[in-house]
Amino acid sequence: MDMTEYLRRVPKVELHCHVEGTLRPETVAELAATHGIELPTDDIGTLYDYDSIYEFLETFRFVNSTVIDRADFARMAYETLEDGVRAGNLRHREMFFNPTLHTTRGVPLATVVDGLVDGIRRAEADLGVTCLLIADVYRQDSAEDTMAWLEELIELDRPEVVGLGMDAAEAPDPPEKFAAVFQRAGAAGLRRTSHACEDGPPVNITTCLDQLGCERIDHGYHILDDPDVVARCRDAEIVFTVCPTSTARVYGWPDLTTHPINAMIEAGLKVMLNSDDPTMFHTDIGKEYVDLCGQNGHSVALVRELVLNGVDGCWLPDADRDALRAEVVAELDALEADLEPA
Ligand SMILES: [Zn+2]
Fold first, then answer.
1. Which residues form the Adenosine deaminase domain (predicted)?
2. Which of 18, 20, 184, 310 has the fewest CB atoms within 10 Å around its CB?
3. CATH at 92
């Protein structure tokens, strides 16, 4: 087995993937036909080709307008887990969904959650992959509206929903806006993470840890601007869920050798790799490993570390996480034994 195949086949945990950014183009076409929605293009293969962030956002809105019924949400969740298993030997994922992306267009929160749970349970039965859900706060929403859906989510009490996260534009709405929301989530037993320091300052990470009770940080690239925050996160072993392809594209980093992920690894931060919005960026969890580790010539030891950082950072119950770790280690050992010397 060569390094590329090895990187594809390495067992993977993914902690940063937005279900709304995972729809297959063919599924979008079928759902649009079912619901009588006109497609923006005659060539569905070009659905996810765009020249600007505005076109991206427009496509994102369109794609999500085709997901309406409980069965649609189930299909979306099932297919993305199937894609992860096939393309990258995905073993466990903690997947974001944005409640207000759907509730603001009239889809009840219970339809969203129960549909996703249906798909997750079917994928686990068919493919052996496990998945938990994290509800994402949309930063541009008001704290009051966000608290309202959080209460509804807590009331639903679905076991797959284990956490609260936060995304969307960071600069105009820094994390302290949602401190009370995150405190409420913590009191209700939800785990917490947040997109932070993606294009905002390192103080946003400090705020997420101290005021929001976050255990993980999603992205975090600009942490490198503040050595004190780096030292704190390194010592506390905070897991950073980084996304090579999507952020290189959005921020114009020309290839993955100049991506700040490398400097974060060198700084001793606990980093693990993710696909973010895989179909929307023409990627998958296998490709993220192949591209980042391949382009940088990362060692087998470092690949193992990246994989196990994902296991350490996941929110499975302790016994399940330990079992997953043992399985992953055994599989890594076997794969490494089959790897051709470089
Ligand atoms: Zn993200």
1. 11-329
2. 184
3. 3.20.20.140
